[in-house]
Amino acid sequence: MAASLARVVYAIVIGCSCVTWLGCYGKPAGFPDLSDVEGTVTVDGQPVGNLAVTFVPDNGRPSLGITDEEGHYELSYFRGETGAVLGTHKVMISTNLDEPPPAGYRDPIPFQYNLKSTLTAEVVDGENVFDFQLDTKSRRRR
Hints:
The protein is α+β, with helices and mostly antiparallel strands. The protein is built from one helix and 13 strands; from the N terminus they run αβββββββββββββ. It has two domains: 1-29; 34-98 and 105-134, Immunoglobulins (Immunoglobulin-like, Sandwich).
């Protein structure tokens, strides 16, 4: 009986050790430091859903979030990791399309917020909240 109890205790200790090790060391070598990023996007003062919000760092992989009905987004990085790489990012916001756009399609979000974005954000260690107020009424032409 004592031997069985010792095996159970040993199995529990080994199991807890594995979980702890994975929690502390589960990221691959060279994986960048990330911080959570969220915010709200409004267009002409109104929250808009189904917008793709992309943070593109100076170096590294971009992060992406999709706005909900209230215009709220949270960024995802890679394989279930949330957040964005620390540092300066170009921010691009565009309509999230489920299919390739038809010929001649023009995103209702002005180009200065997407393809030729002038938006930037500085992601720092800790929580980051970036709200973007987009104005389509003063839409610039290409």
